[in-house]
């Protein structure tokens, strides 16, 4: 089969992978002091919540202690 050339309006599609821009993107804006403080407070709140849930959840996950007296029926002694 013969190779068909693209029409002129679609010629840019073939060259799109070879195109490199010489325009640099603008530099990123630096975060302000209040933004940094807000981010650190949110991070601190998340860490404190995780630590608090761990401290409150550990007693529930601990194995139950055996009671000092055991419940046995009298039928077990006879």
Structure explained in plain terms:
The protein has 2 helices and no strands. It is mainly α. The radius of gyration is 35 Å and the shape is elongated. The protein starts with 10 loop residues before the first helix and ends in a 17-residue tail after the last helix. The mean pLDDT is 78.
Helix and strand arrangement:
Elements: H1 11-15, H2 33-61
Task: Provide tags for this entry.
78 residues; mainly alpha; 0% strand; elongated
Q: Quick gist of this model?
A:
Helices cover 44% and strands 0% of the residues. The chain has 78 residues and is mostly helical.
Shape: elongated
Strand content: under 5%
Largest sheet: none
Question: Which structural class do you get from the secondary structure elements?
Answer: mainly alpha
- Radius of gyration using CA atoms only: 35 Å
SSE sequence, one letter per element: HH
Spatial separation of the terminal alpha carbons: 100 Å
The helicity comes to: 40-55%
Please report the total strand number as a whole number: 0
The poorly predicted ranges are none
Q: Round the mean pLDDT to the nearest integer and report it.
A: 78
Tally of individual helices: 2
């Amino acid at each position: 089969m013969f190779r068909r050339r693209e029409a002129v309006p679609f010629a840019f599609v073939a060259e799109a992978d070879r195109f490199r821009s010489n325009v640099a993107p603008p530099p990123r804006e630096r975060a302000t002091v209040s933004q940094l403080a807000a981010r650190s407070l949110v991070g601190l709140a998340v860490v404190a919540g995780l630590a608090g849930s761990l401290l409150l959840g550990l007693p529930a996950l601990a194995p139950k202690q055996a009671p000092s007296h055991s419940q046995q029926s009298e039928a077990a002694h006879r």
